[in-house]
């Protein structure tokens, strides 16, 4: 049974209204329609049993509803998941971990759920994109020396709708900013070369795949492969691990945040762009504790806002804007830092 958007329809049964609402919100993040949501008595009283591809059942005490299980078996062949954990308060680390566990259960029954940009979507992006006007590097920012190792690294995390947002962001940056980027994009691994070519068009930043032993340079956008996890040693050299990324999607944006922060500490920052799910929401507060900037793309400019909205819900973000506004804010932050450094040198002279 599928809903209006062609995704599987879900039946939700709980004797707690709040739990029904949280289950409905969580399943909606992955494009699932809810064909029924109600308490056991409402389901038992339905004249026509609702159609659903999967049933989610969470009850305060299953013994209070002895006829429910038999009623389900008599009326549906769809899988029934009993005994789901109670959903914690949204915005907490416990909630996002609960949401990930729920996603794992859903995908075991329904298959891969997160929608990804296709090669056609990316090629269409290239066809529509016009070369923007090149913004000028502000006077107070010293141009980065070509090939110099980056001291400040920003992680760009994205999923569905991310390529368009990240391209717009890069296209609105002036050349020679003293910053390097690490790009974590949920995408089919077969489309990586297409994405690299499309995002590099018109940009002043060099897109490249991760390489063992490489150090992120100013002007780089280093794209992390989806197949295996990558980390950094204490000198900032990239290391390919022998195991896949943890979690259902690669690269795991949460793991990318942790791995980059282990090396760069407070000099590591992150921008979460358009995407489904909540990847990044667990690790972002940990980076905030380092003193890192945590920024998100604002909802109305996203192809899907679930991922940046989830990170914003943690309360750790300090800026929210369109890709163009995010680019301008980054230039402003770098300019202010350069001005501060100049004043400190002048005062100490």
Name the beta content range.
Answer: 15-25%
Largest sheet: 7 strands, parallel
CATH superfamily of the largest domain: Methylesterase CheB, C-terminal domain
Number of alpha- plus pi-helical segments: 11
Q: Which sequence of SSEs, written as H and E, runs from N to C?
A: EHEHEHEHHEHEHEEEEHEHEHEH
Distance between the termini: 73 Å
Tally of extended strands? 13
Describe this structure in words.
With 349 residues, the protein is α/β, with parallel strands linked by helices. It has 2 domains: 9-110, Rossmann fold (3-Layer(aba) Sandwich); 119-344, Methylesterase CheB, C-terminal domain (Rossmann fold). It contains 11 helices and 13 strands. It has helices at residues 17-28, 40-45, 68-75, 93-110, 119-128, 162-171, 192-200, 253-264, 284-290, 306-313, 323-348; strands spanning 9-14, 33-38, 54-58, 80-81, 153-158, 180-185, 206-209, 220-223, 230-232, 238-240, 268-272, 294-297, 319-321. The strands form 3 sheets. Strands 7-8-6-5-11-12-13 form a 7-stranded parallel sheet, with helices on both faces. Helix 6 packs parallel to helix 7. The longest helix has 26 residues, at 323-348. The protein is elongated and about 75 Å long. The model has no long low-confidence stretch (mean pLDDT 90).
């Amino acid at each position: 049974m599928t809903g209006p958007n062609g995704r599987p329809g879900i039946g939700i049964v709980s004797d707690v209204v709040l739990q029904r609402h949280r289950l409905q919100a969580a399943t909606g993040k992955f494009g699932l329609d809810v064909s029924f949501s109600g308490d056991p008595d409402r389901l038992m009283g339905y004249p026509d049993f609702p159609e659903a591809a999967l049933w989610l059942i969470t009850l305060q005490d299953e013994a209070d509803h002895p006829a429910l299980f038999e009623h389900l078996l008599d009326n549906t062949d769809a899988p029934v998941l009993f005994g789901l954990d109670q959903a914690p308060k949204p915005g907490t680390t416990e909630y996002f971990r609960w949401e990930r566990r729920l996603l794992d259960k859903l995908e075991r029954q329904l298959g891969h759920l997160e929608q990804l940009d296709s090669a056609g979507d990316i090629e269409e992006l290239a066809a529509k994109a016009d070369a923007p006007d090149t913004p000028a590097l502000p006077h107070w920012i010293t141009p980065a020396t070509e090939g110099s190792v980056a001291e400040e690294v920003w992680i760009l995390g994205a999923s569905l709708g991310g390529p368009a947002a990240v391209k717009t962001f890069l296209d609105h940056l002036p050349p020679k900013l003293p910053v390097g980027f690490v790009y974590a994009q949920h995408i089919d691994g077969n489309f990586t070369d297409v994405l690299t070519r499309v995002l590099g068009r018109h940009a002043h930043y060099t897109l490249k795949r991760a390489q063992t032993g490489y150090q992120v340079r100013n002007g780089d956008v280093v794209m992390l492969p989806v197949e295996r996890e990558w980390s950094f040693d204490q000198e900032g050299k990239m290391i390919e691990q022998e195991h896949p990324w943890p979690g259902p999607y690669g690269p795991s944006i949460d793991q990318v945040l942790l791995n980059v922060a282990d090396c760069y500490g407070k000099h590591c920052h992150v921008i979460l762009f358009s995407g489904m799910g909540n990847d990044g929401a667990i690790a972002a507060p940990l980076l905030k504790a380092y003193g890192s900037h945590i920024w998100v793309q604002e909802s109305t400019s996203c192809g899907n806002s679930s991922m940046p909205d989830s990170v914003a819900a943690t309360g750790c973000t300090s800026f929210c804007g369109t890709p163009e506004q995010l680019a301008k804010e980054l230039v402003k932050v770098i300019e202010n830092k350069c001005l501060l450094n100049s004043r400190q040198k002048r005062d100490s002279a």
